[in-house]
Amino acid sequence: MNYQQLNHTIQGQGPAILLIHGLFGSLSNLGLLARDLVQDHTVISVDLRNHGHSFHSDAMNYPAMAEDLNHLLIDLNISSAIVIGHSMGGKAAMALCNIASDKVSKLIVLDMAPVAYQQRRHDNVFSGLKAVINEKPQSRKQALDCLAQHIEIDGVRQFLAKSLHNKDGYLQWLFNVEGIINNYQHIQDWADISPFNGETLFLKGADSDYLMPEHQAAIQKQFPNSKAHIITNTGHWLHAEKPIEVLRSIRRFIKK
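Given the sequence above, the corresponding structure tokens read:
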């Protein structure tokens, strides 16, 4: 075997649900969803490659991430799962449908479209991450102060700080900063997949511009059995900002 297993947690009993976080995240990011879904499902939460406690790699693209997820399902002897992914994790989930459609019983994509994005949204984040690497902060406050010089939104700084850990006497990033920066074009990119005919739900944050009307043709081409639902008064982090509404939509879709 020339692959490495993704770090993951397994909770609960019942039909399998695979939860996949977004860029700069970790398996705890969809914890609000997991805590509810675990009541009647087996919930598998993963750290994608170069994130959390999973392995670091120079390669980071959606075919590779899909293979990681497929290998994990094989290792866990899971023949079918409801797959839920946010942002980059949504693209990884969609890519999984391209190589293992038989394993995806239903697909739920949180605020992401199957398209290549042109706008660079994370250059300030990259500057902040590199500043922390250079600063070698010894406290969380030092790290947050360092990030604040580059990242205006406190919520983003707090989110990133969840991936700091103490090593060799100072705080370091769990995720592979260099690997993510070097592969950012691949993360932005997308190659159309073969049509996935399984039931699919796209959940959009009303105030987010990641999932837009102009993406409808690409969605219908690749996910012909899909529907969309808008969560009002929320942005890209809809599952964190409106967990009750997101869970209601997920459960309604799962029960059908």
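The longest strand covers residues 104-110. Try to locate this feature in the token string yourself.
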